[in-house]
Amino acid sequence: WTGQTLSEMQTVARKPMAIAAEAIKNLLGTLQPTDTVSVVAFADRVHPVFTAADWASFQDQCLQQMDLLREQRLPADIGTGTYMAEALRVASEQLKQAPKGNSVNRLILISDGIVQDADVTMLAVNALQEEGYAITTIGVGDEFDEEFLTKVADNSRGQYYYAANSIEITEQLQQEMTTLESVTLSDVYVAVRGISGTMVQDIFQVQPTMALFDELYTESDWLRTRLGDISTASKTGIIVQIAPITLEAGTQPLAEVQFTWAQSLGTEGLGPGTEKVTISANVTPDASLTDQHN
User: Fold this and answer.
1) What is the DSSP string of 149-180?
2) Which bin fits 56, alpha (ψ -120 to 50), beta or left (φ > 0)?
3) Does the pLDDT of residue 5 top 60, yes or no?
4) Integer CA distances (angstroms), 164 to 13, 19, 33, 108, 223, in order
5) What string of DSSP letters covers 124-151?
6) Residue 217 — very low, low, confident or very high, per pLDDT cuts 50/70/90?
7) Is 188 helix (H, G, I), strand (E, B) or coil?
8) In this structure, what DSSP letter does residue 293 have?
9) What is the DSSP string of 17-81?
10) Which of 7, 74, 121, 127 counts the most CB atoms within 10 A of its CB?
């Protein structure tokens, strides 16, 4: 008999790789025929479990590969450590082969986030976000680095989740799929510049989650950053911090805001676009109007 003992099966089941593989397999059964997916496993080394082309033609074999991943019987020994940078590079090559146009592509990273190559990994994350890709992270395991996984998601404009078991991972994956299906604008940037001497100091995201923009670019008079994909599944809100100069009474323009996007998704797929709005304030010399009353 060459099977596993109960003790061995329980040991495997407790490992993050095993519960992640089980969750991914559960998700694969819910995909639509038009969905494309590839899976990359990593530890000390990287192993592409299957590609999008494999999934399109040989789904049964792909599911068998997921069983081998869950049981840790892959044809290649990937080790027991966590080196993430090379895995992101391999995954990015898969993303580049995915369909463009009226679709949205996302890299979903399931890990405990306890990596041996954090600095190199962040360089890989930045390279991905510069190409317009977002990374959603799902933290798993009894011990995990939530701060690092949140940083990876924030820097690439993805989302961060935590899941304690395969059922919760599946739920988070399904939530992410719902979000992707409702994306209306992809790779959105916001740029703000002051009017009439107003200084733009910072930009913060407050919806769907609180987030700081680590990458703020200055272009001429504009302060610019990437919002990522915009979905109807949840509102996207930002706060712009400005410092106006002394203004005359009346309605005064303070700043100009410009939104640009790579693709307007939907039945028509309208391509890139731009929208501008003006931030104004009603200035009054009547100080009593600003008094606080409890």
Assistant:
1) HHHHHHHHT--EEE-SSHHHHHHHHHHHHHHH
2) alpha
3) no
4) 12, 9, 29, 17, 39
5) HHHHHHHTT-EEEEEE-SSS--HHHHHH
6) confident
7) strand
8) -
9) HHHHHHHHHHHHTT--TT----EEEESSSEEEEE-HHHHHH-HHHHHHHHHHHHTT--SS---SS
10) 121
How far apart (Å, rounded) are the C-alpha atoms in residues 111 and 95? Answer: 19
Residue 34 CB partners (closer than 8 Å, separation 6+)? none
Distance CA 274, CA 260 (A): 4
Burial readout 58-67 (b: 16 or more C-beta within 10 A, e: otherwise): eeeebeebbe
pLDDT at 186 over 80: yes
CA nearest to 49, candidates 73, 26, 65: 65
Q: Which two tokens stand for residue 223?
A: 């302060």
SS3 197: coil
Residue 144 vs residues 113, 115, 257: alpha-carbon distances, Å: 6, 10, 38
pLDDT given at position 101: 60
Is residue 236 within 8 Å of residue 223, measured between CB atoms?
Answer: no
Asked if omega into 208 is within 30° of 0 (cis), the reply is yes
H or E element at residue 6: helix 6-13
Residue 229 has a pLDDT of 87
| Whether the predicted pLDDT of 2 surpasses 70 | no
Do the beta carbons of residue 229 and residue 258 sit within 8 Å?
no
Distance CA(268)–CA(167), nearest Å, equals: 36
Checking if the pLDDT of 148 tops 60, the result is yes
Half-sphere exposure of 50 (CA within 13 A, CB side): 24
Identify whether the C-beta of residue 139 lies closer than 8 Å to the C-beta of residue 160: yes
d(CA 187, CA 232): 15
49 contacts 40 by C-beta, under 8 angstroms? yes
